[in-house]
Amino acid sequence: MSKKSQIKAIRGMNDILPNESPLWLAVEAVCAGVFAQYSYKQIRTPLLESTHLFARSIGAETDIVSKEMYTFDDRNGDSLTLRPEGTASTVRAGIENGLFYNQQQRLWYTGPMFRHERPQKGRYRQFYQIGVECYGWSTPDIEAEVLAMIHKVFTDLGLQHTELQINSLGDVDTRERYRSALIEYLSKHVDALDEDSQRRLTTNPLRILDSKNEGVQALLLDAPSILDYLSPESADAFACLQGYLQDLQIDFTINPRLVRGLDYYNDTVFEWVNADYGAQSTVCGGGRYDSMVEQLGGQSTPGFGFGMGLERLVQILQEQAAPIAKQQEQDAPDAFLVSIGDRARKQMISLQAEMVRTGLRVQCHMGDGSMKNQFKRADKSGAPIAVIIGDDEAVEGKASIKVLRRTEAPIAQRTVMQNEVANTVTNLLESL
Ligand code: HAM
To answer: Residue 384: which of 357, 402, 396 has the closest Cα?
Structure first.
């Protein structure tokens, strides 16, 4: 194929290559393990949903719905959208399958999400999230549980410099009153607002709080704070959550400008931000969304959850050279099998299956190749032990075992019967 016609991945969509996937799997395993400890169950929903689902839940004025969704008509003329996030799909599935009917749910999911954003470090058009959604609790205790769970995930991963920011957006009434106050304040300084913020002043003024523009940031220093507009119930719930976090010894800062990019939240919202990573520094974001279930046609059910960006998490762990990232780099088989001749190769394939049955991780040299060449590959595989079946060993049903990696006194090569290889290798590995 000529270079010109080479087909490339779509911009903003990445391959996760075999040298990276061990760390991905390890991160997912840590999350799944912690979620299981807190009795969360996994839910898997389709990547494609009816476009209405997202328009009705995320908010028509959000960037996601107004300009970032991958939407198309299928062959029946139905408008479908590749999911830009997991919350709306989880609510849809919960309503459709009666999961909220007289029940509470602790759910988690993982998989790709799609947003047509401008790609840059930490921002992609297909990206992976691990998320959690809880249904049926309106009290801050569930919020504390979820934040404690995220904290445990980060601790187990060895993630550093990642701090929790929290805010309360209050109820609908709070936001209405705050919205008016913010518009009143910003309208007096309209000339100091950038074009984007001027547009948002009428469509979605709270999102101006999120502006990265320095002039706008300066203006916001004197803007009214949403925390001064909370109802007594919302203020109490927010104070209660802070008490739980203090008891849990989870550090946090209150950021009254934290508004999130999706419109479905009320009361508690939060983000975990990594100081070292650059512009796309939020590794995890979420909050409470008590009206979505009802809005999508279910019985009124409170919801609370988060989404965690896996690309960002994996890259930060790599950049921080976290032990979990280093361990995965050293991911090697326990033994590498080398054989000379057809008879030996036949025995090698059976021996591999036998060793794997006992729990060992075993790689074989496939096809022909000189002993020298095969040993080169054994070395490259990183395996600490080579098992060799040559002509002589094959005749006697034996194999030779050689330790490849050892800094101290070398261990002599030894020859054992093939049915003793698994045991011998296991014992040797323990002594290395
Ligand atoms: P979100 O803030 O849009 O929230 O996304 C959650 C996380 O996904 C972000 O903090 C970030 O780590 C990652 N992320 C988002 N967009 C991208 C992107 N283009 N490229 C790479 N990573 C990205 C939600 O999606 C909500 N559904 C969270 C939630 C669940 N709220 C309640 N329940």
So the answer is: 402
**0.85 exceeded by pTM:** yes
Query: What is the number of H-type helices and E-type strands within the chain?
Result: 16, 16
Measured in Å, residue 371 CA sits from the centre of ligand 1 at 52
Per-residue pLDDT, averaged over 83-87, amounts to 98
Task: Indicate the pLDDT class of residue 2, thresholds 50, 70 and 90.
Answer: low
Report which ligand 1 atom has the smallest distance to the Cα of 125.
Answer: 19
Contact 93, 99 (CB under 8 A): yes
Q: Give start and end residues of each alpha helix (H) in 298-370.
A: 310-319, 323-329, 342-357
Q: Which of 113, 258, 263 to mutate to test the pocket of ligand 1 (most atoms within 8 A of CB)?
A: 113
Where helices occur in 68-194 by DSSP H, the ranges are 87-96, 140-157, 172-187
Ligand 1 atom showing the smallest separation from residue 313 Cα: 12
Pairwise CA distance, residues 295 & 11, whole Å: 35
| CA–CA distance, 102 with 299 (Å, rounded to integer) | 10
pLDDT for the residue 407: 62
Q: Provide φ and ψ at 340, rounded to 5°.
A: -125, 120
